[in-house]
Specification:
It contains no helices and 20 strands. The strands form 5 sheets. It has a 4-stranded antiparallel sheet with strand order 1-20-19-18, with no helix packed on it. A 4-stranded antiparallel sheet has the order 2-3-4-5, with no helix packed on it. A 4-stranded antiparallel sheet has the order 6-7-8-9, with no helix packed on it. It is globular and about 40 Å long. The N and C termini lie close together (about 5 Å).
């Protein structure tokens, strides 16, 4: 059944905000320190961390070679070298208070918690390609599964799968925690961090 917990573990660092899957491991940002953590998804243990240029990053995405983070207070989107955290490029977010990020193979998706919009943007220029209203207030994490977007609604405690063209909700289910702040897709399952109880869940879809 969708939303069934496959496994869960305590976040190795407090205040988990967003997750990204790089093919083997998870990357996580927190609301407590300007670091991007790499996590072993089997053991739940931290592998390493890199310092990031933002103290309030609440979104992270993996594009196959590099990482992207959102700067919630600075309204910037940054592309980072995953080895040392070097900034490759940076552009202004299409709106203030950018939260979740997702990569769809060609473009970047950005959630906005202030006006509840989801944007698809050109990763080179930051130009908005399309946008739609999120299915819930204060959308947090984003993930791309190859055909649809997944959105973590931290105000509703629901996980939504939506059509990326129309924004129509395809399905939804309850998050196992009260405050899902991110979502990552590993090719078969979802990973959801919960800020309220400092846990990371792997969920069936």
């Amino acid at each position: 059944m969708a939303g069934t917990v496959i496994r869960s573990f305590a976040s190795p660092y407090p205040g988990p905000q967003a997750l990204a899957w790089d093919g083997r491991t998870l990357w996580m940002v927190t609301n407590s320190i300007a670091r991007l953590y790499q996590i072993n998804p089997t053991t739940g243990q931290g592998i390493r961390y890199i310092s990031i240029p933002s103290g309030t990053s609440v979104g992270v995405a993996w594009d196959g070679r590099t990482l992207w983070i959102s700067d919630y207070d600075g309204d910037l989107i940054s592309q980072l070298d995953p080895t040392a955290g070097r900034v490759i490029r940076r552009f202004a977010s299409p709106s203030t208070e950018a939260s979740g990020l997702a990569w769809d193979g060609r473009a970047l998706w950005i959630a906005n918690k202030l006006i509840d919009n989801i944007y698809q943007v050109d990763p080179v220029t930051g130009r908005v390609l399309r946008s739609f209203v999120a299915p819930s207030p204060t959308p947090a994490g984003l993930a791309w599964d190859g055909r649809a977007l997944w959105i973590a609604g931290d105000s509703t405690a629901l996980i939504y799968q939506v059509d990326p063209v129309t924004g129509r909700v395809l399905r939804s289910f309850a998050s196992p925690g009260a405050a899902p702040t991110g979502v990552a897709w590993d090719g078969q399952t979802l990973w959801v961090p919960d800020w309220y109880n400092d846990r990371i869940y792997q969920l069936s879809v």
